[in-house]
Amino acid sequence: MKRILKLLSIICVYFVIFFKGNATEKIYSSGDKKIKKIALTFDDGPNTSSLSNILDLLKKEKIKASFFFVGNRVVLNKEEVKRAFDEGHLVLNHSYSHSNFGTATKDKVFSEIENTNSVIKDITGVSPKLYRPPYGIITENVKKAVSELGMNIVLWNVDGEDWNKKRTIEQVVSTQEKETKNGSVILMHTQPDKNTSYEALLKLIPYYRDKGYEFVKLDELLDIEAYKN
Ligand SMILES: [Zn+2]
């Protein structure tokens, strides 16, 4: 199912890019290819142990990352959101319910994004300007909602499929190593039921450092603002 959604999301993205001349300006999936910088991004939190492990590791390694959190999980795990923000990571928007918005109305998408911004702002004091759609699905209604909220969409160009229960840690690591280039936005997840992403990171961080990549947050990689003024 997730593979179908992934394929659908890619088709949707290209449909939008192909048919809407100026639509691409607000959809980012990578940064400057001339500079040896990459951004680690983590979707689907906040969700206890897996996120805590990743935050501990990033702290130890002095790496700042970008987290796309789900609103209905934010209200249940406020301390983790506060911790991620206080430790210098970006706290960004991944919808309120993590639904498939393929057929959703603009109003539905708008309220999901707005509610998530609101619960994040209650904790951090800032309102995210960057939105990552669940499953990467972008429709005209998603675009309109994001645009009316004065936000931008951030996708990715590296996906080791750490969310896929059939993938081993070695497979996740190997795909990420192959796909990563200068300016890459790397998609990873914090998972409630397993630690694949954390275990993969233990191998990937030394690999990326050995290749000379610098870890930066999305606002630096893409040269855009992460939060609304
Ligand atoms: Zn997600």
In terms of DSSP E residues, the strand content is 5-15%
Structural class comes to alpha/beta
**What is the radius of gyration computed over CA atoms, rounded to a whole number of angstroms?**
16 Å
Can you tell me the CATH architecture?
Answer: Alpha-Beta Barrel
The averaged pLDDT comes out at 91
> What gap, in angstroms, lies between the N and C termini?
38 Å
Tell me the major beta sheet. 6 strands, parallel
The CATH superfamily is identified as Glycoside hydrolase/deacetylase
Query: What is the count of distinct domains?
Result: 1
The CATH topology assignment is TIM Barrel
Count of DSSP-assigned helices: 9
Silhouette: globular
Name the bound molecules.
Answer: zinc ion
Uncertain runs: 12-25
Helix content: 40-55%
Tally of strands? 9
CATH class: Alpha Beta
H/E element sequence: HEEHEHHEHEHEEHEHEH
What does this entry look like structurally?
- It is a single chain.
- With 229 residues, this protein is of the alpha/beta class.
- The chain has a single domain, classed as TIM Barrel, CATH 3.20.20.
- Helix content is 45%, strand content 14%.
- It contains 9 helices and 9 strands.
- It has helices at 2-19, 49-61, 71-74, 78-86, 106-124, 140-148, 169-179, 196-210, 218-222, and strands at 27-28, 37-43, 66-69, 90-93, 130-131, 152-154, 158-159, 185-189, 214-215.
- The strands form 2 sheets. Strands 2, 3, 4, 7, 8 and 9 form a 6-stranded parallel β-sheet that branches. Strands 1-6-5 form a 3-stranded parallel β-sheet, with helices on one face.
- α2 packs parallel to α8 (196-210) and α7 (169-179) runs parallel beside α8 (196-210).
- It is globular.
- Residues 12-25 have low confidence and may be disordered.
- Residues 43-44, 94, 98, 134 line the site of zinc ion.
